[in-house]
Structure formats: C-alpha cells, structure tokens
Amino acid sequence: MTPSTGWALVGAQFGLLAALVILPAGELWPRGLVSLIAGGVLLVGGFVVAALAGLRLGRSLTPLPIPKDDGELITAGVYHYVRHPMYTGVLMASAGLVVAQASLAHLVGWVLLWGVLTLKALGEERMLREKYDDYAEYSKKTGRFFPQLTSL
Question: What is the percent of the chain where pLDDT is above 70?
Fold first, then answer.
C-alpha cells in the first residue's frame, strides 16, 4: 500500500464517521430510551476499546495503515483477541450512532465504513506478514475485528 492510498482510506474513514455524526435521525426502528442507552453503551465501549488499542501500540501507533519502520508487532492486551482492535472500536462506536439514530443512511454509512476498514486491514496485514515472521501464525489465532471463539 502506498502512503497516498493509505491517506485516501483514512480520509474515507473520517468522512464516513463525520457523515454518521451529522446525518439526520430516521425511523427504521423506534428511537427512545432503549436505543439511546444501547447506542451510548456501544459508543463509549468503542472509544474504550480504541483507546486501549492505541495505548498498547505505543510508539508503533501511526495514522496510516502502514507499519512504521521502527515499529514492533504487538500481540498482547486487546491485540491478543483481535488483530485490529482500533478498527473494532471504531466499528463499535459508529454502530452506537446507527442504533441511536435509526436511519437507513446511518446503516448504509456504517456498512461502507466497515468496507473501508476492511480494505485498510487487508493492506496492512499484507505488509505485516512481509515485515514480521510471526504475523501469519498470529493471524491464524486471532480474528480481524472480532475475537475468534478459539481465542477466548
């Protein structure tokens, strides 16, 4: 993946996140206290997962889906369960917006966001396999965005 492709995917990700924040609410399901609480739990939970992942990456953290030259492969903490927990956090938090806002536009935006994050992850995984000998084995034991049942 080139840096320009990486930046394009990051831009698409943040554009979709911005859309999810500003899109008007809909009526796909009843919006009330239950949907607001469920959406809030997902939103806060997603922020927590993403923050834990970012902290665990430490100096290996980068805005691009391109591993840093001086980075290291992190497989502990939340990375013990999933390969891309920051993306997991983004998906959880944005799902909270979908649940709370109940619109078809939010649902479509979330699916598109999942697609962008998948493209980012696939490119990043290819580079991680090339850079780290243990990555192939690690990826067999951990899910991309959500834990595999065998890793729990």
Answer: 98
Q: What is the pLDDT at residue 149?
A: 77
For residue 124, give the nearest of 35, 9, 11 by alpha carbon. Answer: 9
Contacts of 55 (CB under 8 A, 6+ apart): none
What is the extent of the structural domain holding 101? 32-61+69-144
pTM reported for the whole predicted model: 0.92
Q: Are 90 and 13 in contact (CB under 8 A)?
A: yes
95-142 pLDDT, tens per residue?
Answer: 999 999 999 999 999 999 999 999 999 999 999 999 999 999 999 999
CA distances to 10, 63, 120 from 145, in Å:
17, 18, 12
- Burial track 2-35 (b if 16+ CB lie within 10 A, e otherwise): eeeebeebeebbeebbebbeebeeeeeeebeeeb
In 3-state terms, the chain is what percent helix, strand and coil (to 5)?
Answer: 70, 0, 30
Residue 44 belongs to domain with CATH number: 1.20.120.1630
